[in-house]
Fold this sequence. Notes:
By secondary structure, this protein is mainly β. It has strands spanning 3-7, 10-12, 18-25, 33-39, 46-51, 58-59, 67-72, 77-82, 91-99, 101-104, 108-112.
Amino acid sequence: QVQLVESGGGLVQPGGSLRLSCAASGSIFSGNAMGWYRQVPGKEREFVAHIVSGGLPNYADSVKGRFTISRDTAKNTVYLQMNSLKPEDTAVYYCYALRGIFYWGQGTQVTVSS
């Protein structure tokens, strides 16, 4: 059974930073892609970033240059460093792991507001 547990969300002012973490347990290995989507109420879930060990990370255009995804394979944890946050980054952020099917975390709220 795969479990993904996110942490690190919260309230931050525009221009600020947050780091999200997602710890995976179960049969998720370094060769499995992991990443982040986000969702605003009333809208579809939107791709943010993903990473596969040995490959280049991939980002949505809206976050390129501001967000950085990284992975600690020893801890089976993926991180999303978010800098220069904007109000439009406000969303629930969901971690995922891909192993045949998508496995999802419970989501963590990120609110960017003054």
